[in-house]
Each structure stands twice: as structure tokens, then as C-alpha cells.
Design brief:
Layout: H1 33-49, E1 52-59, H2 65-79, E2 83-88, H3 98-110, H4 113-122, H5 134-137, H6 149-170, E3 173-178, H7 185-196, E4 203-210, H8 219-229, E5 233-237, H9 243-258
Parallel strand pairs: 1-4, 1-5, 2-3, 3-4
Helix pairs in contact: 7-8
């Protein structure tokens, strides 16, 4: 289970714990100072001027994309009192909007229940169609309004944005979305909507992906190009560790085994 950590409050409730995916790893984290700086720069800009940003972190399988995001998440959680959410995509794509469902569910499970209910009511309760567990946790929520499918999808996107922007107004918000090369088109559409919204809040999304699985006509590639044109996205591509960094990793791993 997830353990609540001490820290600042989020709104009127207890501060959210870090997602379980970001528990400290046994293998030491070495190197990547340049890549961490390339995450820190848009994060600082987002916090300083209340700006939405997306940073796409690419690389080969196993090269350390998720670990880099985890180290950065722990850093901003500890040093900037950030709220951190996490979700990932899956190859089988069982549930639409999966990373958003997981990220929002973390807040609903660990946040203050009264505050979460107020957030859902404020957003028009349409999130109950995005996150299946909402109805189980808050069975007394009013039924969301019905509309034409396109209108309903737009209202649902606005509801998700309202909830996440509300969290970002209470504390800088970092959302990590893993394995975006498996993202379905609805997930990418919602990510684009979130990044393009003009309401100024300190919100940054780090999205990891496998470079080799994102060809020229891949929907993620198109979304990345659109957001870069809009000036709200950056891309970081990981390569292998240097000889010195590999040596430091081996030394750190040996130290752990000798303890």
C-alpha cells in the first residue's frame, strides 16, 4: 500500500503521498545530471510564471526513462512541496484514458474526501464517466448532464482540466505518464487539451515513450509535433550512460551488496 508522507497540506486536506511507482529504488541513481537539468528548467518556468508544460522523455526500453522521472518527482515533492500524480499506458489498452484514470484515482483515494467531493461537484460530475470508481466512492453525486457525444467529450475534458488545474492552484502539480507509445487517441486528445488550456497554472506533464515504437505516422508523434508548434512542449532523449557513470553505478551496486 501507499504510505502518507509528512509535508505541506494540499488545500484543506492532508498532503497526497507520492505514488507507489516512485518509491526509492534499490539500485543507486547515477549520472543524468544534464537530463535532470532539462526537466528542472521547464519545471521552474512552470512554477515561476504559472505555465503549463509537457516534457516528452524518450529512449530505448530499459534505458532509465521511468527512473529519471521518478528521481525528478521525488526531488520536486521534497523540495518544492509539489503534488505528484502518476499513470501509465498499457499495450493491451483495456481502459480509455488509462493514465488519467490512474492519476485522478490517486487523488480521490488519498486526498481529503470532502475536498475531493467538492472538486467533483464543481467540475460537473462528468468525471464519473472517465474514472469508473467515482460512483463507488461517491454514490450520492448528482447525475452528470447528458449531451451529444462530441459535446459530452468536450465537457468531460473540461471537467478533467478543472480538477487538475484546481490541484495545481493549491500546489505545483507534476503528472508523470509512462509508456505513451501505447497511448490511445483519446488519451492523447485529453493530454493535448490539458496542455493547451489557457488558464495559467503551475502544471507540468512528463510523458515517457520508446523512441523506436513511435514512427512518423504514430499518433504520439503527431501530438508531440502539435504541442511543440504551440510552444508548450519539450523533448528529452536518453542515451546510454558514460563510462564514468557506469563505473559509479557498479560501485554503488557493490556497496549495497556488501552491506
Amino acid at each position: 500500500g501507499e504510505i502518507a508522507l509528512p509535508g505541506a497540506e494540499v488545500g484543506t486536506g492532508t498532503r497526497l503521498p507520492l505514488p507507489a511507482a516512485f518509491s526509492a529504488g534499490a539500485v543507486p541513481f547515477v549520472g543524468r545530471s544534464g537530463e535532470l537539468d532539462r526537466l528542472q528548467s521547464p519545471w521552474k518556468r512552470s512554477v515561476d510564471v504559472s505555465q503549463r508544460r509537457v516534457v516528452f522523455v524518450g529512449g530505448d526500453p530499459g534505458i532509465g526513462k521511468t527512473r529519471l522521472a521518478a528521481e525528478f518527482a521525488r526531488h520536486v515533492y521534497d523540495n518544492d512541496d509539489a503534488t505528484v500524480l502518476y499513470g501509465r499506458c498499457y499495450e493491451e489498452n483495456v481502459l480509455p484514458y488509462q493514465p488519467f484514470v490512474e492519476a485522478i484515482d490517486h487523488y480521490l483515494r488519498n486526498g481529503d474526501p470532502a475536498e475531493a467531493r467538492a472538486d467533483l461537484v464543481r467540475s460537473g460530475t462528468l468525471l464519473a464517466r472517465l474514472v469508473p470508481d467515482i460512483r463507488l466512492r461517491f454514490p450520492d453525486l448528482p447525475e452528470p448532464v447528458r449531451a451529444e457525444p462530441d459535446t459530452e467529450r468536450y465537457l468531460m475534458f473540461e471537467a478533467a482540466d478543472s480538477l487538475l488545474a484546481g490541484l495545481a492552484k493549491r500546489a505545483p502539480l507534476l503528472i508523470v505518464m509512462d509508456d505513451l507509445h501505447w497511448a490511445d487517441r483519446p488519451t492523447l486528445a485529453l493530454l493535448t487539451h490539458l496542455a493547451r488550456n489557457t488558464e495559467a497554472v503551475p502544471l507540468i506533464v512528463i510523458g515517457t515513450f520508446r523512441v523506436g515504437e513511435v514512427s512518423g505516422d504514430h499518433p504520439l508523434r503527431a501530438a508531440m509535433a502539435d504541442l511543440r508548434r504551440d510552444g508548450v512542449a519539450d523533448e528529452v532523449v536518453l542515451t546510454g550512460l558514460s563510462e564514468e557513470e557506469v563505473g559509479a553505478l557498479i560501485d554503488g551496486t557493490c556497496d549495497l551488496e556488501l552491506r
